[in-house]
């Protein structure tokens, strides 16, 4: 398999962490979707990463779809419960974490791609409000548990850790650790795992 992505994308990092935890072999192909010479639309018509090129040459897109598929390839390190409420909970927590990223990425694009005189503070505030609300919910759902499903790591924990890790990377001035110490504790714990140490974002 080939994973097409960047070292800065939190969605790509989520997939890379899952592949490491599942002990799956793959080739990591770097792609800058913002470069004029990008070829990403040859594998993803939406022009986004990650994209997973499988052995038969077909491509899978969207990190949530990719990681769900990867979890079926081997029973090693099962990350998504098979059925019922626990499965739905894990996917819901992942969706909230991804939603926080979607909002924060819009803020970054507003500040980096749009001329200063055209930037909208109300738009930025609206998106950061989603970030705050999402983190508040994720913190409340985690509570004082070591992981989202109690005593073992799941995709929910990986998704949340990738989210807050990217916030620290791209928004170092944004203090999420003080109001949400349980998320900080989860992040620091997962950051000690080889899968996270080997995928720390860098530009």
From TrEMBL:
GST C-terminal domain: residues covered: 83-203
Residues of the signal peptide: none
Record CDD domains: GST_C_6 (cd03205), GST_N_3 (cd03049)
Residues annotated as domain GST N-terminal: 1-78
One GO cellular component, as annotated: cytoplasm
PANTHER family: GLUTATHIONE S-TRANSFERASE OMEGA, PTHR43968
Name of the protein: Glutathione S-transferase N-terminal domain-containing protein
Biological source species: Undibacterium luofuense
């Amino acid at each position: 398999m080939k994973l097409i992505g960047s070292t800065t994308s939190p969605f790509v990092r989520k997939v890379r962490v899952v592949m490491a935890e599942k002990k799956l072999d793959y080739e990591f192909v770097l792609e800058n979707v913002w470069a004029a010479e990008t070829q990403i639309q040859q594998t993803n018509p939406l022009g986004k990463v990650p994209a997973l090129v499988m052995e038969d040459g077909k491509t899978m897109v969207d990190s949530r779809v990719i990681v769900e598929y990867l979890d079926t390839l081997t029973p090693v390190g099962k990350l998504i419960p098979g059925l019922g409420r626990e499965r739905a909970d894990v996917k819901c927590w992942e969706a909230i974490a991804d939603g926080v990223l979607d909002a924060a990425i819009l803020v970054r694009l507003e500040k980096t791609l749009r001329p200063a005189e055209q930037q909208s503070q109300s738009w930025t505030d609206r998106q950061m409000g989603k970030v705050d609300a999402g983190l508040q919910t994720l913190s409340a759902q985690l509570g004082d548990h070591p992981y989202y499903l109690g005593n073992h790591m799941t995709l929910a924990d990986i998704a949340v850790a990738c989210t807050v890790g990217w916030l620290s990377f791209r928004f170092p001035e944004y203090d999420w650790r003080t109001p949400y110490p349980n998320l900080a504790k989860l992040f620091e714990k997962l950051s000690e795992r080889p899968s996270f140490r080997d995928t720390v974002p860098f530009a």
